[in-house]
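All the exercises in this workshop are built on plain-text protein records. Sequence and backbone structure share a record, each on its own labelled line. The question running through the whole workshop is how a given chain folds. The record below serves as our worked example for the rest of this section.
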Amino acid sequence: MKRNMLGRIVFQCVMATAFLMPAANLVAQNEPAPKKASGTIAVSASADMNIVANYVAIQIVTDHTDANAREAYKLTTEEMSKAIAYLKKRGDIENIKTTQVMLYPRVRDYKSGAKEYNARQTLNFELTKLENYDEVMLSLIEMGINGVGNVQFKSTEEENYEEILMRKAVQDARKKAVILASELGQEVGPAKVIDEQLRGGIYPVMEYKMALSSDVSAGSEDPSVSPGTLKITKTVQIQFELK
């Protein structure tokens, strides 16, 4: 009796396995085969051109130190206020913007613990007529401005050429990819990834120091600055599919 029961159990297990196997095979056949990762080729290319600067971005600084915080702050703000009023009256000045206002203590005598206070303020603006550079700077110095930060020559034409340079960089990138792929007997497919690199506009930067002789005047012979040309660069990196 026990043997008959055991035989029935074995028979039922075998039949159940035989029934499930075709279903399992059917599920396996319906699953899509994993796609093979297609090969890619990554290239980078740049395009550039030179243009002439036609305006200049200037940063001016006024800085005073005094044992009295109010006095240091007062001297600094008064000078900068005069400078702002002067710049606003001119027709060749644009984008006047205060960029820093600071007032902080520092120890003047470590033995006694005496302190002094430094007040500092910076202002950025753009001069649209380069030939007036000396006139503007000397006038600001006479008002008490005692420092100049970065002076950057720029051009309003830069944006007009950005699209042209970008298209050329993309075209050059594809040409490179085609040359490399053809040497391996392959073809270049569509772009998979396009990466525009950081802006490549490169400008000459100069420091204009306040070491001026007493006989220098706004009407002196030739301008003291010569911006020359500016180089604009656009760079792209592109990954193409390989066929």
Remarks:
- Residues 2-30 form the longest helix (29 residues).
